[in-house]
Write a structure and sequence with these properties.
The chain has 175 residues and is α+β, with helices and mostly antiparallel strands. It folds into two domains: 51 residues; 107 residues, Rieske [2Fe-2S] iron-sulphur domain (Rieske Iron-sulfur Protein), CATH 2.102.10.10. Helix content is 16%, strand content 31%. The strands form two sheets. Strands 1, 2, 3, 4, 5, 10 and 11 form a seven-stranded antiparallel sheet that branches. A four-stranded antiparallel sheet has the order 6-7-8-9, with no helix packed on it. It is elongated and about 90 Å long.
Amino acid sequence: MSDIEGAGELLENRKRAARWQAEFPYEWSADDLVGRRQLLKWAVMASGALFAATGVLAGLGFARPRKRGAEQEIASASAIPVGGVHYFKYPKADDHAILLHLEEGNFVAYSGKCTHLSCAVYWDEDRGKLICPCHEGIFDPRTGERIAGPPPRPLPVITLRQDGDTIFAVSEELE
């Protein structure tokens, strides 16, 4: 303990210079390494690059195809009663969709994923609405538009084609 300076002394903060009184730790010769103009120039160039990258990503989002899926047989029209529903997989095997028979001869189909958090949407026959049970999202069965709840967009519409008694899904239109 004898080789530690001040081991027997009482340390006081009053003897040290305050932080604001200490000399600047850099020499004047090192002041030219990074100037304010260089730092500002770098910050402006980085902001411009980020802005340009955001524009490119937004453009790529608009360039993607707005429809997906291939024609697929869904069900027989006579197998679904008026006011009935048929759940099926479209456009891929892991995507589910809903086919509704609203009135005689009028069929509509929508993606079965809620546009809020991709929860499963189902047909509530008692209420006559498409319901997302996760956060009480409600969709209009005639148009797929959002009626209530947090979903930000309507359900994606699946274009249908009827050939005789067979109903086909043609494509899913993305918003």
